[in-house]
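Example record

The entry below shows one chain as it appears in the dataset: sequence first, then structure tokens.
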Amino acid sequence: QVQLVESGGGLVQAGGSLRLSCAASGSIRSINAMGWYRQAPGKQRELVARILSGGSTNYADSVKGRFTISRDNAKNTVYLQMNSLKPEDTAVYYCNADRLVIAYWGQGTQVTVSS
């Protein structure tokens, strides 16, 4: 089992910044990748950014150049730095960890961007 605890969401004005954190614990060995997904009301959950165990990253087109995913292996924590936020970034953001063939999810953290 992998436990994921997110923090850092909140309310911010358009153009502002937030940093989300996701701390992993439990059976963290063999985690293949960690990432952030988001789900806005009435929409499907979508990938925002992902970082693989080897360090490579990928981003949704809508956030490229604005969001950066990173990790601190010593703290077993993944971060999502979000800059130049837009109202359309408003959503619940979920941390994800893929370990072997199982996907683990955090409880979600709300990000609201006001115009």
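Notes for this example: DSSP finds no helices and eleven strands in the chain. The first strand starts at residue 2 and ends at 7.
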